[in-house]
From TrEMBL:
Family: Belongs to the heat shock protein 90 family.
Keyword Chaperone: yes
Pfam families recorded: HSP90
InterPro entries assigned: HSP90_C (IPR037196), Hsp90_fam (IPR001404)
Molecular function terms, GO-annotated: ATP binding; ATP hydrolysis activity; ATP-dependent protein folding chaperone; unfolded protein binding
Taxonomic superkingdom: Eukaryota
Phylogenetic lineage: Eukaryota, Fungi, Fungi incertae sedis, Mucoromycota, Glomeromycotina
Keywords associated with the record: Chaperone, Stress response
Name under which the protein is recorded: Heat shock protein 90
Length: 145
């Protein structure tokens, strides 16, 4: 939304042309799905369960779940992961191959902290995010040679 008043105005508007309006950014959004879509979603959740558990181990008390609400970003805060995004697919493969890989743990934190910044939140220690970004840049440069 462009102006601060936009969010307030939309939050007060419950219906438009006979259609109920709901905020898709809030937790607990229920999307109507047919039985086939529901089965596919449950299978997706089952496939990514191990990754979610692993991410929870790394991030501690932060919530991680597979989402069907995001389409372009790899994740958003709570931490809902997008199972269709190449970053999440690759991360899943790497965790399954070696869950003790320090780089994977750093990538999970980098993904989480980047999602915080992307969602407009402030970081307690922005310098830690910067150092992770620099580390990833260095890894990319090292792999390019």
């Amino acid at each position: 939304m462009t102006y601060p008043i936009d969010e307030h105005s939309i939050s007060q508007l419950n219906e438009y042309e006979g259609k109920k309006l709901v905020c898709i950014t809030k937790e607990g959004l229920e999307i109507d799905e047919d039985e086939e879509a529901k089965k596919l979603r449950e299978e997706e959740i089952r496939k990514y369960d191990y990754l979610c558990i692993y991410i929870k181990e790394i991030l501690g008390d932060n919530v991680v779940l597979v989402s069907n609400r995001i389409s372009v970003s790899p994740c958003v805060l709570i931490l809902e992961i997008n199972p269709h995004h190449s970053i999440i697919k690759t991360l899943k493969t790497k965790v399954e191959a070696d869950k003790n890989d320090k780089i994977v743990k750093d990538l999970i934190w980098l993904l989480f902290e980047t999602s915080l910044v992307h969602s407009g939140f402030s970081l307690e220690k922005p310098s830690l995010l910067a150092s992770k970004i620099f580390k990833m840049i260095q890894l990319g440069l090292d792999n390019g040679n």
